[in-house]
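Structure tokens please, single chain.
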Amino acid sequence: MNQPKHSIATRVVHGGHSPAAGEPVVTPLVQSVNYVEEVGTSEGLRYPRYGNVPNAEHVQRRLASLEGAEAALVLGSGMGALACGMLALLRPGDHLLASEWIYGGALRLFAEEFPRLGISVTLVDPTGSREWRKHLRRETRALFLESPSNPACHVIDLGPLRRLAAGQGLALVVDSTFASPVNFRPMEHGADVVIHSATKYLNGHNDVLGGVVLGTASYVEEVRQKMMVWGQAPDPFACWLLERGLKTLDVRVQRQNENAMALATWLSGRKGVARVHYAGLPTHPDHEIARQQMSGFGGMLAFDLEGGGVAAERLLKRLTLIRNAPSLGGVDTIVSEPRYTSHAHMSAEARAAAGIPDGFVRMSVGVEEASDLIADLEGALS
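Here you go.
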């Protein structure tokens, strides 16, 4: 008998885990490196670096349930997940087409490290399928994008890319870190591979470093082999904390969605704020795509201050409740300047061309009372 497909709010609590009578409701932490094995066979060998110990397997089943994937693999960091996930798809001589609106670490991986491995990368404006199609080569093997993108929160329509990838036999890879499975599940829109930095929304409490790759079972096994060689497996305790954080994912993200909308609306009418980047605003150019493609607009937003870098620095120094910190997706509201964090390796001119001018502030909205956050911003901007 087929089991009913529960809602995302139920799956974050119960997905992939059905304890029998007498078993604990909470997954036990098994903080062991070694496991007793059968003599004379390598079958069933368990080892944390292989990603097959109890805590890893528990949380991987839950993550696969959330995204609707055949399999999931948890790795030691978001960048570890991205690197191993892409290297499981690409070989020397292959070509990757990637959105130019991506996290700075991903940009460095593609622009600096992949060419050393014989993998060529072309960055494209992701807003139209013509740009992607124009740069296709015989050696192209995959399309990569983030949606929403880091840090400017662009939402990219997967429809044209799904059709292009399917028609050309390419893998469509989506980094969905900013959305979380609560707001967006790329596989429902044609993605073949989904990547998350589990450090962010999936854990949600700023106390775990991790990454996730999701896809078919055969592909995830390829990623696991890369993880084993490159030493990117997480510790069992990190997996246990990740599973614990996942249980509140839906309630956290729903509150963050509400708070971000309230803050974006307030900022859009505030003197001294030149522009607000949040697709939940009807005036945002990606609003209609986001409304159709996502279940919520997310807890990430950004804004440009009219006074540029000086105004941004003044704002961050005056905040008393909101903290200046580089990560995102946690229960605490934090802000950062990408010119000093994710995009510090780029020149001011290159950042401005990418839509990240000096004075650009990225905000990860938490679960506090929205009025308190607005009051903190008002005091810092006044």
